[in-house]
Amino acid sequence: MSHTLHPEAAAFDLAALTRALEHSDADALLALYDEDAEMEIIDRNRPPSAPMRLVGRPAIAAFWRDVCAREMTHAVGEAISTPHRAAFVERCIYPDGCHVVSAMTLELRDGRIRRHLTVQAWDETSCG
């Protein structure tokens, strides 16, 4: 059985996302988002009942510029992508030894990120 992509389902560039994250390139990350994209982040300081919500590229840009300006390493793994969804795990390490693991899922539209959900855990024993 063969499957064909619908013309409106442009391919998402998962390799570009990986490069942008691993090289802390906020501009390259931002280029992957729709103008009206939404991002939700759940972590130790933002529980499911009160997550961080960012709406639109300007808000998402401010977030990624802050993250990419921090001194830390990023490694992307366990990545998978279809025309409408992508998911991956990002592992970060700060110079002081603090580890952060983020599981991210993306809803895609025309090869761009429409909705982004991050659930992240911080290593409480090494993070201040």
Q: Secondary-structure map with pairings?
A:
Elements: H1 14-22, H2 26-30, E1 33-42, E2 52-55, H3 57-69, E3 73-81, E4 85-93, E5 99-109, E6 112-122
Parallel strand pairs: 1-6
Antiparallel strand pairs: 1-2, 3-4, 4-5, 5-6
Give the ordered list of helices and strands. HHEEHEEEE
Count of separate DSSP helical elements = 3
Number of structural domains = 1
Strand tally is 6
Quote the beta fraction. Answer: 35-45%
* CATH fold node name: Nuclear Transport Factor 2, Chain: A
Q: Regions with pLDDT < 50 over 5+ consecutive residues? A: 1-7
Q: Helicity, in percent? A: 10-25%
User: What would the average pLDDT be, to the nearest integer?
Assistant: 91
CATH hierarchy class name: Alpha Beta
Radius of gyration, in Å, reads 15 Å
CATH architecture: Roll
Q: What structural category arises from helix and sheet content?
A: alpha+beta
Distance N terminus to C terminus? 53 Å
Q: Main sheet?
A: 6 strands, mixed
The strand line-up of the biggest sheet is 2-1-6-5-4-3
Overall 3D form: globular
